[in-house]
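1st attempt posting a full record on here, be nice pls
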Amino acid sequence: MRFRPSILEVHEYRPPLHGRKSSGEVLLDFNERTDPLPPAVLRELADWFLEGATQVYPEYPGLLEALAETTGMPQDHLFFGVGSDQLIDCVFRAVVDPGDAALIPTPSFAMYAHAAALAQADVRTFDMLADDLAQAADEALAARPTRIAVFGQPNNPTGGLIPTLALLDLVRDNPDTWFLVDEAYAEFSGESLLSRVARQYPANLIVARTFSKAYGLAALRVGYVVASPPMVTQLAKIRGPYDLSTVASHAVQVVLRHRDDVLAYVREVMDVHKPRVELALRVLGIPFLPSRANFLLIPDGVALLADRLKAHGIRGRVMGQPELKGCLRISIGGAEATRRLLDALEG
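the predicted structure (as tokens):
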């Protein structure tokens, strides 16, 4: 039997998922929300199941309206999908031909390179550990024509970001390049391009968002992009007509109705618990990268911390990229997760 050569050459992206939930460990490895959603949200979701609508194919009444109200963007600029992972893949499939140049930060989220490989792009990189990230990206864009450039704002796993105005300058200075800006952690950083472009949206900009992190819907897989209407039209040809489940659509609208209560968790993580963890690491003399998100990358973390965390029932993420050999990423969670983490660090 024959397979496409380009697929045979791509490595499967296989994150270490097996046994996470059943392990009983404190899960600080995937940057998820560690606290349950507010009881009012969970009650509304439970009520939906009791209505007995699971046998009907999905429809999405109210979803675009809810996203438009949240983002301040017109509905024709919005497109939803099965997590931002699917949407990243859809964008590459929409704009990249084999051999087109794709600029991807390194180190960064593995799905960027995976989507680029599936599209048979010519991948080039810029260094997310550089002192001046905007300059590193600008130099890479100037080196040769680029079909698509991807940016994590903040970047996973480093936690850094390019200043919003500097990134917007790159978008405007390179009108023939598609810019895919992944704002999976924007709720934690407090920065977004959307507030800068709402009135005049650049035709070459796609902003991806997710409900998997701050909003606590990782198991339901919901994401969306903000893009120009022509891009939305093309993406609709790629995503299936009912890929997103009805319960996922309903859950998004529930968490957005309770947005203030749901995102109180974000303020607690960033204003209370993250500073406590950073202080504990400084006292121990353990270096970490400055981060604008709900995680920290520790350069020598595997040697310094991995065994200690495991002994205390805490799961961090050992990084697999060659340039991050020996690095450990730990998520910052709510009060109980932070208490357990601090006990492990101080023990």
